[in-house]
Every structure is written in structure tokens, then in C-alpha cells.
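> call design_seq(struct)
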């Protein structure tokens, strides 16, 4: 259903494509939670492509539903590049390992070269897409990653880089604004892997290829997210055509609106989960 503020749709799950890898442990955990509760709480957010839809947010939910055997997925459809939607980047805090030098390990990978420079030059090169990323080490030192910056090879290399440190524990993400504050204050901090920003067209291209980005580096800013829909899992895994499930969704959502069960907040809010 398309309302003034949002568009929810029942989509065949085979028409929905990821642009990033998923963490098998997070998928297994969420899959169990969905199966136990019997509901999909928050719909993934997708955007149209020439063929199908690309998942902007909700790769773990989408993969979990595929593994459960859902034939359809409830998704919030948005207009990519419009309506205030922006693509930003998550950066990764590199783990401090007593027995492993992560930066040296990355530097030993085939297909790249690490070169020391300052943060400003590294940032300028990344903005121009002349490098695949850089490692922020200290207020005075950054290591740029020189390699083939064509989309396919660079995507493959970024997966290899992330694989060198994700096996050492949970990856902690750092927003670009937070990194800029750390740099401005010139405070000591763990090394940070800084990624390039991808365009909507690049995200679509990646989604339609075999070369996915590593999990947790794209950050989509999406106003008007639909939350707490709590759609019954039976409607996603049960028999029925897309038209039949869409008709059910429209009736279900209309009843929610009539009963004033849908609220739109114009202002940003802070929510404490139960």
C-alpha cells in the first residue's frame, strides 16, 4: 500500500537482491528469533532497480527469511536518491591484537600497497576515488590502500581486507562524523579502516553482480522508516500469489490506519527498547 508517507509492498523474495554480504552468526540468531516469535517486526527497506529491488537496509532480515523458506517479503519501498535518502559509510575500528599486527597483515595482502601519508591527503585521495580506502592510525599518520579502483576488483579486495580482521571478533562500526570528531580533537584512538562512499548507481550495480560488499560498510540515511509492523510470518511463507498477499496487506494496513494504529513522527525521537 502506498500512503502519503510510506509505501509497503509484498514482494516475491527472489526479486530482492543484496548489495552486501551477511554475517552467518547474525543470520542464524535472527532466523531463530523470527521463527520463535512468528512475526517480522521491521520490514527491510528496498529500492527499485531495472530488474527487481536492492536491499538498502535489512540484509540480515532478508537472508533469514530466505533461509526460513519465505516466498514473499514485506518491504518498505523508497525512491533511491530522493526523499532525503543518502548513502554514507560506516568505518571499522580495527581490533587491538597482542599476537597479530592487523595493519601489517592487511599490507601483506596481494593486490594492494600500503603507503604512509597524513590524514588530509588520504581523505582527498579517497574522495577522488584514487584509492580503495585508508587506515587512520593517529592524528599524524594514515596508511592509504593503493590498488585497482575499478568497482569489481575494489569490491573483491574490500571483502578480503575485512576478512583479515572480522575473524578476531565483533566488528565495531564508527560513523564518519564520529571519526571526524576524533581527528579534530587529535585524541589517541585505535586504528580505523576508512571506506569509500558508494553512489546509488554503484550500489545497484553491485546488487546485480556476484561481487558483494563486505557487511557493515554502507550506511543509508532513510527518513520515515516504518517500524514495529509485526507482520505474521505465515503470510510470508504460506501459499498464495503476490496479488493475493498484496490484497491482504492492503486490507490489514487500512484497518490499522482506521484504528489509528499508525503514527507518523515529524520530529526526530529517542526510543528506549523494552
Amino acid at each position: 500500500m502506498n500512503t502519503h508517507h510510506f509505501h509497503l509492498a509484498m514482494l516475491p523474495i527472489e526479486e530482492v537482491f543484496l548489495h552486501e554480504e551477511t554475517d552467518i552468526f547474525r543470520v542464524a540468531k535472527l532466523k531463530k528469533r523470527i521463527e520463535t516469535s512468528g512475526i517480522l517486526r521491521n520490514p527491510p527497506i528496498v529500492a527499485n532497480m531495472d530488474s527487481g529491488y536492492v536491499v538498502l537496509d535489512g540484509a540480515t532480515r532478508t537472508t533469514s527469511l530466505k533461509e526460513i523458506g519465505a516466498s514473499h517479503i514485506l518491504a518498505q519501498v523508497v525512491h533511491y536518491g530522493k526523499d532525503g535518502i543518502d548513502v554514507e559509510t560506516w568505518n571499522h575500528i580495527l581490533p587491538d591484537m597482542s599476537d597479530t599486527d592487523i595493519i601489517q597483515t592487511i599490507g601483506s595482502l596481494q593486490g594492494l600497497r600500503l603507503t604512509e601519508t597524513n590524514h588530509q591527503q588520504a581523505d582527498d585521495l579517497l574522495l577522488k576515488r584514487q584509492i580503495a580506502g585508508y587506515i587512520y592510525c593517529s592524528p599524524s599518520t594514515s596508511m592509504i590502500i593503493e590498488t585497482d579502483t575499478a568497482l569489481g576488483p575494489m569490491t573483491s579486495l574490500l571483502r578480503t581486507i575485512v576478512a583479515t580482521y572480522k575473524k578476531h571478533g565483533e566488528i565495531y562500526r564508527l560513523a564518519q562524523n564520529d571519526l571526524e570528531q576524533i581527528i579534530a580533537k587529535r585524541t589517541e584512538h585505535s586504528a580505523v579502516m576508512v571506506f569509500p562512499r558508494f553512489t546509488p548507481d554503484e550500489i545497484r550495480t553491485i546488487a546485480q553482480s556476484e561481487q558483494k560488499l563486505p557487511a557493515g560498510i554502507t550506511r543509508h540515511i532513510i527518513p520515515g522508516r516504518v517500524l514495529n509492523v509485526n507482520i505474521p510470518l505465515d503470510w510470508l511463507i504460506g501459499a498464495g500469489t503476490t496479488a493475493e498477499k498484496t490484497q491482504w496487506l492492503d486490507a490489514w494496513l487500512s484497518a490499522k490506519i482506521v484504528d489509528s494504529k499508525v503514527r507518523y513522527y515529524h520530529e526526530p525521537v529517542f526510543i528506549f527498547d523494552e
